[in-house]
Amino acid sequence: MKKSQLSSSVLLMVLTFLLSVSWATSLSSSSSGDLISCLLSKSNNVTTVSQLIFTPVNASFLPIWQVAVQNTRFLKPSTRRPSVIVTPMEETLIQTCVYCAKKHGYEIRIRSGGHDYEGLSYTADVPFVMLDFTNMRSIDVDVAKRTAWVQAGATLGELYYKISRETDTLYFPAGVCPTVGVGGYMGGGGYGNLLRKYGTAADNVLDARFMDVDGNILDRKSMGEDLFWAIRGGGSSSFGIVLAWKLSLVPVPKKVTVFILNKTLEQGATEIFHKYQYVAPNIDRNLHIRTQVFAEYIGNTTKKTIRIMFEGIYQGTTDTLLPLLYRKFPELGVTREICEEIRMVQSTLVFWGLPSSTPTEILTNRSAIAKLNNKSKSDYTRAPIPIKGLKKIWRKLMQNDESALLMINPFGGRMADFSETAIPYPHRAGVFLQILKTVNFNGQPSDTTPTSLRRIAWLRSLDALMTPYVSNNPREAYSNYNDLDLGVGSANYKEASVWGERYWKRDNFKKLIRIKAKVDPHNFFRRPQSIPVF
Does residue 119 sit in the same domain as residue 268? Predict the structure, then answer.
C-alpha cells in the first residue's frame, strides 16, 4: 500500500513538472505550477486527467486552441491565448477546474463551439483557463416525449442530424450555422428559421444541468426560477457553467418548402424590399423569408447595383405556399419552378448555402464547415425603413469594396406572443426586422491592415447612417452578436447600462444584475460585457 502511494506521489510530481515547465517562460505568475498541481492532485486518475490538460509546451496546445476559433480574425500572433486548456470528459474535472482557478487567481473562459463574435470564449487580457467542451457532446433524443438532453459541447449541426436520424416530424427551433455550440447559444436567446412559429431557442428550453461558482451541480428545481430565467438569454456564462440543456422539440411536417430568388435594383428590389418589411413580419407564421443584401458590379462593367436574395422556408407544401404569396406578396414573383420540397434537416443545408442533395452527415463534420472572418453589428427595426432611407443604405453599400453583407430576419408571429420579460431576451412585440451588418477581411492577412481598418471604419459609418431607421431608447442589439464597440465599462450601473440595456433593456438588465449578485457575489465568472455585480 505504501509503495502504491509513493508511486502515485512520484507520478504526480513528474506530471506536474512536465506540464508546468513552460509556464516559467510564458507567464510571470508564480502560481502557474501550483495551478497544474491543484488540477492533478484533485483527480482520482492522474494519468487520464493529465491527457486532458494542455499548456503551451504541448505540441497539441495550439491546434486544440485553433480548431474552434470560428472567427479567423483572431488567429493572429497578438491574440492572447489561455495559460492552460482543459478538455473535460466528465463533470468532476470541471468542478476541479473551477476550484483551482479560484484558488490560484485565474479567470475561466468557457468554449462550446467557439462562435463568440469577439472571441471572448477563447481569449482574454488576463491569465485564464479555457474550458473546452469538445469532449462533452452527447445528445439523447426522446421522440415519444419530444425532448432532447444535449451536452454543452454539441453543435447545432450535430443536434439536427441526431434528431433527423430519429424522426422527420420533430426539430429544434435554432439557427442554421452547423458549428455553433449549443452551450453558449441558448445563453444568448438563439433564433433561426422557426422563430416566427416557435420563438427563440431559449423559449424552448425545459431544464438544464448547471454548475455554480461553488461547484454545485443544479437543475431547474434546485437552482430556482430566477437563475433558470437568467441563463436562458441573459448570458449563461456570467452565472456559471451550463453542462447540458433539456430541449423541447417542436413538430414540423415531413416535407417543408424552400425557395431562393434574387432581385436587383434594375428588377425593382427597392420597392419589393420596402413591401417585404410590411409583409414578412405579419404573414402566416409558417412562412419565414430571410434576406441578404449585397452590393456588386453589374457584369463586367464598372457600375454597381444592389442584389437582394430572398430565402424562404414554409412549413407546408408548394400547393399551399403559392396561393398565400400570390395573395400577400405577388411582387416577389415566387413560382413553382423555384420551390423545392425537402426534409427540415435539408433546409438547414440550403440556408447555409449548400445544395439540398448534400449528405446530411456534413452537419456533424466540424472541419467541413467554412469559418468566418469578419466584424459585425446588429440592429432591430420597429417601423419599416422608408424608401428614401433604403436608398441611402444602398448608396452606402455601393461605397464598400464588396466586403459587406446585410442579413435580415423578420420577426412577428410567435415572437410577439412573449412579453419582453418572459426571459432576458427582450426583442419581442413590435420588432419588424433583425439586421446583422458585417464586413469580412477576406484577402487580408489580419484585421489590422489598412484595408481591414477601412472596412471596420465603413461598418461603423453604416451603423451611424442607420440610426434614424432602427430602434431607439435603447437602440437594441443582440447579445449573441456581441459587439465591444458598444462599451465594456462595468464599474457602476451608468457605465454598464450603455451596452447592457441595448442587449437586454433596463428591467431585464437590472434583474440580471440582482441575480448575478446573489449567485456569484465575488464576480468570478466575468469577461468583457458579462453581467456585473454592484
Answer: no
Coil/strand/helix, residue 410: strand
Cis peptide before 474 (omega within 30 of 0): yes
Q: Encode burial over 10-25: b for 16+ CB neighbours within 10 A, e otherwise.
A: eebeebbeebbeebee
For residue 1, is pLDDT > 70? no
Residue 425 annotated in active site: no
Q: Estimate the share of the chain in helix, then strand, then coil, as percent rounded to the nearest 5.
A: 40, 20, 40
> Which spans in 21-108 are helix H?
23-26, 32-41, 46-50, 61-67, 91-103
The pLDDT tens digits of the residues spanning 316-368 come to 999 999 999 999 999 999 999 999 999 999 999 999 999 999 999 999 999 99
Long-range CB contact pairs, 132-141, < 8 A, 24+: 132/64, 132/68, 132/85, 132/86, 132/87, 133/87, 133/88, 133/181, 133/183, 134/64, 134/67, 134/68, 134/87, 135/52, 135/87, 135/88, 135/89, 136/88, 136/89, 136/90, 136/243, 141/166, 141/249
- Range(s) of the domain holding residue 407: 255-338+372-467
Q: What CATH number does the domain containing 376 carry? A: 3.40.462.20
Question: 404-410 and 287-297: which strand pairing?
Answer: antiparallel
- Looking at residue 50, its pLDDT comes to 84
Is residue 64 a contact partner of residue 85, using CB atoms and an 8 Å limit? yes
How many CB atoms lie under 10 A from the CB of residue 225?
9
Which pTM does this prediction carry?
0.93
* Among 76, 110, 132, residue at a domain's last position: 132
Q: Which helix (H) or strand (E) holds 325?
A: helix 318-328
Annotated catalytic residue: which of 276, 425, 481, 503? Answer: 481
| Domain identity same for 274 and 409 | yes
CATH number for the domain including 127?
Answer: 3.30.43.10
| 451-495 residue pLDDT tens | 999 999 999 999 999 999 999 999 999 999 999 999 999 999 999
Q: 443: which DSSP letter?
A: T
Report the DSSP pairing between strands 287-297 and 217-218.
unpaired
Q: Hunting for cell 492552460 — which residue is that?
A: 84
